[in-house]
Design brief:
Number of domains: 2
Radius of gyration: 15 Å
Helix content: 40-55%
Largest sheet: 2 strands, parallel
Strand order of the largest sheet: 1-2
Strand content: 5-15%
Distance between the termini: 31 Å
Number of helices: 4
Structural class: mainly alpha
Order of helices and strands: EHEHHH
Length: about 120
């Protein structure tokens, strides 16, 4: 029997990298996949195949306030509010798990990595 048989798995950042790989693997294990990505065409591609936060490499002095707001909105605020919405449904059903992952590629960009590390702390609660 497949590990995720008859379960729905929501994967954000499913358009590429770890998110896409997770979507493909969970689908192989019987999950119904909801693929979400900031680039809808990439999410659709993953969804079709099963039938990552954002990362910006910029010099610290070149990042504008708008760039920083976008990074925080996706990597921190977006993740939190998706988890909150999903958790509410899990509580109603008395069932479910939230598994958060981040890419190590964020470690190579100190500014983006900061937002991803901020999420790491709440994963241990």
């Amino acid at each position: 029997m497949a590990r995720f048989s008859d379960n729905v798995v929501l994967i954000t950042g499913a358009g590429r990298g770890i998110g896409r790989a997770m979507a493909l693997r969970c689908a192989q294990e019987g999950a119904h996949i909801v693929a979400a990505d900031i680039e809808p065409m990439l999410a659709e591609s993953t969804a079709a195949a099963v039938g990552e936060g954002v990362l910006r490499f910029q010099d610290m002095f070149d990042i504008t306030e708008a760039d920083w707001d976008f990074i925080l909105a996706v990597n921190t605020k977006g993740v939190f509010f998706v988890m909150q919405a999903v958790a509410r449904e899990m509580v109603k059903r008395h069932n479910g798990k939230i598994i958060k992952t981040t890419s190590i590629s964020g470690q190579s960009c100190p500014l983006t990595g900061t937002t991803l590390r901020g999420l790491h702390g709440d994963a241990r609660q």
